[in-house]
Amino acid sequence: MRRATTRRALSRALCLAALIASGPAFPAATAAPTPDEEALYRDRVALINGGRAADPTGIALYQPLERIPGAPSASPITARRPGRQVIAPSALAAAAEYAGRNNSSSLLVWHDGKLELATYFNGRTASDPVIARSLAKPVAAVAVGRAIDLQRIQSLDQPVGDFITEWRRSDRRQILVRHLIDMRAGFLAQGPTFDGASIWARAYLSPRHEQVMIDEYPLTHTPGTRYEYSNTPADLVAVLIERATGRRYAEFLSREIFQPLGAPGGQVWLNRPGGVAHAGCCLLAPPEFWLRLGILLLQDGVWEGRRLLPPGYVQAMVTPTPQNPWAGMSVYAAGSYIERRGAGHPDVAAPKTLHSEPYLAGDLFLFDGNSNQVVYIVPSLKLVIVRTGDEPPRVPEWDNTVLPNTIIRGLPERIRARAVAQPGP
After folding, report:
1. Which residues fall within 8 angstroms of residue 91, CB to CB, at 6 or more apart?
2. Which end of the chain is more exposed for a tag (fewer CB within 10 A), N or C?
3. Which residues contact 176 (CB under 8 A, 6 or more apart)?
4. At CB < 8 A and 24+ separation, what contacts does 169-176 make?
C-alpha cells in the first residue's frame, strides 16, 4: 500500500508542471506534512541520490513548477550583422569551440548593445529553458533590490524578523536582509549528504521546506560574522518576498523582473502544489533571460531608461564582504588573483574551480552555478557572456577564465584598454 501511495504522490507531482497557484493566501509554515507529502519527500530523496541514472536531465526532481509569465511581446535582443562584429571572429570561434567541447547548451556574447554571438549546441534552441541551478541566486538578489525600490523592504539592513516574525524572539533576530543574499546569515554550511534524515535534505527536498528552514535549520555563527555557502538563506528569499509584498514569488518575478526586461517567461520549482518557491535554485528560463539580467546589472539596474533597482544597489551586490574577498551578494567578483576558488568559504576544503590566469578586467563579476553555468559581466567593456549547459568533462577540467579572457583579447586594443586593472594580491 505504501509503495502505491508513493507512486501516486510522485505521479501527481510530476503532472503539475507549470502549475499556477491561485489566491493571495500563503501556506502557514507550521502546517504538518501530510502522508502524501512524506511519500513525495522520500521519492525526492531517492531521485536525488540516484543521480543521473534516476534523473538524466535534472528536471524530474523539480516538480511541481509554477509558471512565470514573460513579456507579452518579448522580442530577441538585436544581433550585429555577420561580418560587422566588433570582437575578432577568431576569438568568437575559439570561445564557441571551447564551449562546444565542454557540454554547453548555449553561448551568448553581447557587447555594447548588440549580440555578437548566439550559439546553441546539441540540438538546443534559443527557446529551450535553462535548468538554472544556482544561477537562480542572483535572480533572488535582484528581487530583493526590486522590493526595496518598491519600498516593500526598507533596506538591506532591515531585520528579516520583521517579515519572518517567528524569528523575533530567537537567535535569528540578528539576521538582516543582506545576510540572506551574501551568505552571512550564520547558518550551517551546505553539506553533501542527502539521506532522508539530514537537515540538508529536509531543507531542500521537503514539501514543507520553508518550515524546516525557519524553525529547524541550525545557526552556527553570529549573523554577519562568517561567510558560509548554503541553499537555505537564498531559498528563504522567496519567503521574504512573499511576506514583504503579499505576492507570490513567481508573480513578483514576472511583473517586476521578467516583463520589464522584455524577457520570455519561465518556471520555478515549488515545494508542493500551491506551496512555496525555491529562490536559491531551480528556476527555468531561456538563455536570453540570463543575458538580459546581466545587462540590467551592467547598466546599474536601469533597463531602457526605467530604473528597476535602487541607485547603488548593483555596487552593493558586487562589493565583496570582509569574510570572502571574492563573493558579494549572490555574485562573485574578479578580486585579487587566486588559482582556485569555490562557492564555499575560502578556508573550507572543498572542490574549487580552476582559474589559470587573472581575469583581464578587474571589474568583472559573475553569476556562477552548478555545472559551471556562468554569466560574466564586465561593465568597463560593456560586455556580457552567458554559458549554460551540463557538467563539463573532468579532463581537461573547466577553466573559469578561458571564455571571458578569450573574448576580451578579441576586442580592439582601443576598447580593451578601457578594462579596469586587476587588483593586486
Report:
1. 406, 407, 409, 410, 411
2. N
3. 156, 157, 158, 159, 160, 223, 224
4. 171/219, 172/219, 172/223, 174/222, 174/223, 174/224, 175/223, 176/223, 176/224
What is the grid cell recorded at 305?
Answer: 531608461
* Residue 365 β-bridge partners: 333, 377
Burial (CB count within 10 angstroms: exposed 0-12, middle 13-18, buried 19+), residue 2: exposed
Residue with grid cell 570561434, as numbered in its chain: 93
- What is d(CA 293, CA 162) in angstroms, rounded to the nearest whole number? 28
Contact 302, 308 (CB under 8 A): yes
Q: Which residues touch 165 (CB under 8 Å, ≥6 apart)?
A: none
- The distance of Cα 204 from the centroid of its chain, to the nearest Å, equals 15
Residue 165 CA to residue 143 CA, distance in Å, equals: 20
Contact 407/359 with Cβ under 8 angstroms? Answer: no
Report pLDDT digits (tens) over 308-347.
Answer: 999 999 999 999 999 999 999 999 999 999 999 999 999 8
Q: How many whole angstroms separate alpha carbon 352 and alpha carbon 75? A: 38
What is the model's pTM? 0.91
Angle 2-14/35-49 helices, nearest 10 degrees?
Answer: 80
- What sign has the CA pseudo-torsion 345, 285, 378, 354? positive
| 369 close to 134: Cβ distance less than 8 angstroms | yes
Q: Are strands 130-131 and 266-269 parallel, antiparallel or unpaired?
A: unpaired
